[in-house]
Amino acid sequence: MNGAWAALAAALPNDWEQATLLGRADFGEGPLPLLVVRGTAYDMSRVAPTVSMLVEQGAFDPDAGEALGPLAELGLSADTDAQRRILSPIDLQCVKAAGVTFAISAIERVIEERARGDADSAAEIRERLESRIGGSIRSVVPGSQEAADLKAALIEDGMWSQYLEVAIGPDAEIFSKSPALSTVGWGAEIGVRSDSTWNNPEPEVALLADAHGKPVGATLGNDVNLRDFEGRSALLLSKAKDNNASASLGPFVRLFDDAFTMDDVRGCEVTLRIEGEDGYVLDGVSSMREISRDPEELLRQAMSEHHYPDGFILYLGTLFAPVQDRDVPGRGFTHKVGDTVKIASPRLGALVNRVVTSKDAAPWTVGIGALMRNLAERGLLKD
């Protein structure tokens, strides 16, 4: 087994040879939609030149594509200098994210807000909030009368927050994470702003939906977050979330079929492992069984009254609360350059990325214009 394949094989779902996987690769001429069915890879670019078009056509028939042979023999690598590279599995889709969808993350967001982005104040605020609302917020159904009663009680106590509004109120927090084509894939570097001093990964399941909001598959994602920026003001959400290389997805989208359904997403457990060059190790787990809103309800709210002609992908949020201290007691976790982040789930695989600053990460240069020029030069837009 060669090195490139060994690395990719370790990132695939545990039953990948029985799965239908959708992704993107570049064999040196430009990106192409890649369909993997029972271990065999197919170039679908002559069927549809982009993943978004392939999804809109529902064109997942491998016989319509060009068989490339076993995935194990393609030599796909995450190395930017490799002749055959694996890319983020989406292209023209809008990139959306749901926030504060787990009780723990709701409490942590309130901590950020009350600490005004100051990690030194977090421990005391966390203890006070947990003792007051830890149990009740975990059991309440968002938008219910019970949630409304809890809100009234917290307002009376002076403990209400905009984050609790989206955690237990009728409307979920749905925001735009990054521009189309800006996401990075498995093995790529991920970026945090160089001026951020309190930040963390957000290990999540992400759903791929077509233009009508119908889910077609799921993948793993890292919704990289800057806690200091968002904590200073919710109006800094775009600076906290949308930075160069701050959104990763992959390695593939697993398409829904008889063997993999939305119920598998609902029961999914996502593990997180961070290994620092300083020897620091952090392990965490996020169980989708503890999500406050059903994934299909989050899709419905993301769709809302929008139009997504190229479809969209939706990060579903995380249970992970980065409270384990790294250097200074009480300051919790923050990234250091060189951290390796591994997000994994047995039926979706493993998404592995290395942390750098956003200014040092590979620049995003292939936008929509560059992609269309490339596809035209390859004769893929003639029809």
TrEMBL record:
<dbReference type="GO" id="GO:0046872">
    <property type="term" value="F:metal ion binding"/>
</dbReference>
<dbReference type="Pfam" id="PF01557">
    <property type="entry name" value="FAA_hydrolase"/>
</dbReference>
<comment type="similarity">
    <text>Belongs to the FAH family.</text>
</comment>
<dbReference type="GO" id="GO:0016787">
    <property type="term" value="F:hydrolase activity"/>
</dbReference>
<dbReference type="InterPro" id="IPR051121">
    <property type="entry name" value="FAH"/>
</dbReference>
<dbReference type="InterPro" id="IPR036663">
    <property type="entry name" value="Fumarylacetoacetase_C_sf"/>
</dbReference>
<dbReference type="GO" id="GO:0044281">
    <property type="term" value="P:small molecule metabolic process"/>
</dbReference>
<feature type="domain" description="Fumarylacetoacetase-like C-terminal">
    <location>
        <begin position="165"/>
        <end position="356"/>
    </location>
</feature>
<keyword id="KW-0378">Hydrolase</keyword>
<protein>
    <submittedName>
        <fullName>Fumarylacetoacetate hydrolase family protein</fullName>
    </submittedName>
</protein>
<dbReference type="InterPro" id="IPR011234">
    <property type="entry name" value="Fumarylacetoacetase-like_C"/>
</dbReference>
<keyword id="KW-0479">Metal-binding</keyword>
